[in-house]
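Progress against Task 2.4 (sequence-to-structure conversion) is shown through the following example record, which the project officer requested during the mid-term review.
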Amino acid sequence: MKRLTIKFLNTEYVIKTDADEEYVQKIASFLEDKVKEISEKESNLAVPRSFLLAMLKITDDYFKLGRDFDEFKDASEQRSNRLVQILEGSLKDSEPFNYQEGIQREELRSEELEDTFKYR
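C-alpha cells generated for the chain above:
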C-alpha cells in the first residue's frame, strides 16, 4: 500500500491505498464538487477522516458499477447484433428460416456468450 495526499475542501488528508493516484484524485474531486453543490455557503467544512474514507469507498463502488453497467450494455448490444445477423442471414437464404438451425447456430456461440455475462 502506498500513501497518497489528497486535498478535500481545503484540507489535506493522507490515505493508504493500492489504487492509482489519478483515480483517487478523480474520486476526491467528484466528491468535493458534490459537497460544494449542496452546501455553497459553507466553504470551510471539517470532515472527519473516517467519514471521508467512507465517502471515497462509496464513490469508488459507484464508479465501478457504472463501468460494469457500460460493459454489460456493450456486450448485450454485441449479442443482439449477432442474433440479428443470424436471423437476417437465415431469412436471406433461399430456403425458409429453420428455427432449429438458428438455435444450433446460437448454441455454437453460447460458451463465448456465457463468459461475457458472468458476474465479476
